[in-house]
Amino acid sequence: MFIPPTSDPRRRARIITSEIIALSILIIAAMWVMAGASIMAAREAALDRTRSEGRNLAIAFEDEVSHILDGVAGGMEIIARRMRAAHDKFDIHDWASEIPLLSSATTQGAIIGPDGKLVSTTLDPSPQPIDLNDREHFRVHLDGRSPGIFIGKPVVGRVSGKTTINLTRRVDAEDGSFLGVIMFALAPANLTALHTQIDLGVHGTLTLMGLDRVIRARFNSENPDGLSGIGQTVPSDAVPSIVPANGGGSFVKASAVDGVLRLFTYRRIGDYPLLVFVGLDLAEALAPFRAHAIMVAGIAGLATVLLAGFAAFLIREIGRRTKQEIALAEERSRLRADIALRQEVEQQLRAAQQTLHDAVDSISDGFVIYDRDDCFVMCNEPHRRLYPSAAPLMVPGTRFEEIVWASLDAGWYAGAVGCEPEWLADRMQAHDHPAAPIEQRLADGRCVMVCERRMENGGTAGLHIDITEMKATEAQLRQSTNNLNRAQRIAKIGSFERDLRTGEVFWSEEIYRIFERDPDTSPPTRDELLTIIHPDDRARYQASMAASEKGLSTPPLQFHIRCPDGSLKSLFVEFDLMLDDEGNAIRRVGTIRDVTEQRAAEEREAELERQLFHSQKLEALGTLAGGIAHDLNNTLVPILVLSELLLRKTPEGSAEREDLETIVQATHHGRDLVRRVLAFSRDQQAAKARVDLAAIIRQALQMLRPTIPATVLIIEEIEDVPLILADPSQIQQVVVNLVTNAVQAIGGRMGTITVGLSTTTRSRSSTGNFTRLRIVDTGCGIDAETKNRIFEPFFTTKAVGEGTGLGLSVVHGIVTNHGGSIEVASEPGKGTQFTIFFPVLGPVAVSLEPAAA
Fold first, then answer.
1. How many Å apart are CA 807 and CA 162, to the nearest integer?
2. How far apart are CA 250 and CA 66, in angstroms?
3. Do 837 and 826 contact (CB within 8 A), yes or no?
4. Reading across the β-sheet that carries 274-281, which strands appear in turn?
5. What is the tens place of the pLDDT at every residue in 401-447?
6. Where do the DSSP E strands lie in 554-672?
7. Residue 195: CB partners within 8 Å, gap ≥ 6?
8. Which pTM was predicted?
9. What does the alpha-carbon distance between residue 646 and residue 279 come to, in Å, rounded to a whole number?
10. What phi, psi does 824 have (nearest 5°)?
């Protein structure tokens, strides 16, 4: 203070008084300004403290709900894979024992079928098919335009009877067909435990709200079950319009539910359409501020009274000292406030860190956090146990790459041994750009799935899950499937299953092999299956399928199919029907067995029996015919000799000579008949040589053409074929007999006779290299009864005197004597085809006939 020199004491007194008054006024004004600033600072500090507390609670609340939702998403993915593998055998009640379903928050897990009816639930092993078509959480998935998880509004469950929040996800099969909807019902009371662990005050609230502004859960001291205001829709001006993933903020507003003025802190839960709100009563939050304001105002008022009372009596030094003391007091007050505020902030920070550590340690799987510089921040004990060799380096500040190198040096990663640099490069790439989970095989045999994601602050959070048991279960399932497929392949029996309600069909690998189809394609539809079934079997197959779908019992269906290479297969089908509680057929299961080889063997056995019987009959008839032929020959010789002697002595032109010529001619005919019978009965071996079958057939046809009527056209389809061992005259006799029979079958009508010669590798009775001779006519044909007897000696359908019945018997004997076989195909009115198979000349046959050339 400057006091101008003066000799007037009053003036000096006035000056001093004026200075003291002015100084007092100045001090009082400054004191009240500082008091007001202190009060405002205290108010802002209280609000900041409340915001910080609300933000920490919102983060913790978000972490709890996000962990639950991520667990639900993981559980849904596992169930979705089970549904795709099981097709329509959905049993979530049985799967719950193997799949983590977050039992602490989930009241039930369920599967809803494509028809909107409940298929399976964790609450009941045999649930009623409740219709859920009216539920929003099912209807949003019908058109397939709602990908991912849908979080519905709170509803009262029809099975559990509780108010729940339903999370649903659509599941499609590999081919895109709709398998159904997975539903997890979450109890609001189990979404968080913060309201029971932290004092929110009388009016403090925790709220979970969707982006649709509908309250999913609301906790306060009076309603710890989370049902306060649940299901209400708040006004659009009461919540922020746009919140990015993992974003948040705060605002002060009166609650739309109960009207209490609160400071709200909110955060969005990842990519989920949910917001968490922490509402702290503003009056409770500002209570410390009011006490501080009252105290500061009281101190300032008291100082003002003291300063005003003593101002008149203070001299300049007292005034200066008073001013200094006031300044020092204010400074000390500010210092004390700053120290107290700093201590309070540090205490809150320690509490938040402890809460974070407790939350991380509560995770059963390995959990680790790295900062934006890729340095270690923290992890839980399960993570340290997974990587014991690198555990000493898991301290704040250690880089991720150093920790991984420590495990690599210890050989802890089984898949990295021998290629550590390349493995590390791939691992760093996956760590820097986290996307899909990766699997790691550890040296102790365990398998770990690593899921990493970037945080808002640029750091990385990783979850390391031990999936050893899950991989073992998958391996056992694959082994069981392989064993079943191997057993079906050995037995040549495939299994199938058809859902009669949805039309979905499952085929085992063996059925794909039987039908010669690609296993990666879907089973054929009913119409496609009918196209490959033999036309003769289609009507019977359709009738049997229709009867079975009506619940009628049908015997097993044998039918034939045509393979892509044109061959036919014989299949034997057996199936059974599965009925619902009302007796309606809902599923058809059965087996298909390839019996082609079995049927072929049975046919070969029947053919051999028929040939044996025929040979035995021919042998007996031949013996009888031989005896009769000898007697007839002895009888005809004297008749022929005496008739020829009389003929020589009888004059030309006489009636007796004409009679004798008739007798001689008839005797010659009888002698020829006897010779043919003797040739049939003696079973003489022909003189065989290497012959060109094509040349022999052409010569026979050339000889026959003059005798064939002009109404019959001969068509030659003769190819060059390998040589065979044969008697040329007997082969020619075979051709002549068959062509002559064909001409007689055509009669006086227009017709054709096709003579074909080619090579083949199989006949009806055997396989190998054969020359195939075909003689096909367009004659009258042969009925089944006659066809079975045409090779019998003396059997003929011709009138008396027109045939002996030995032509085809001789043909059969010649073919059999040459090691061949003969087949007949004919129907009345459709002509006849004779097919003869001669074995091709081989190296052994050549050596047996060196002189045939």
1. 94
2. 20
3. no
4. 215-219, 205-210, 274-281, 261-268, 248-254
5. 999 999 888 888 888 888 888 998 998 998 988 888 888 888 888 89
6. 557-562, 568-579, 585-594
7. 204, 206, 219, 220, 221, 224
8. 0.45
9. 146
10. -125, 130
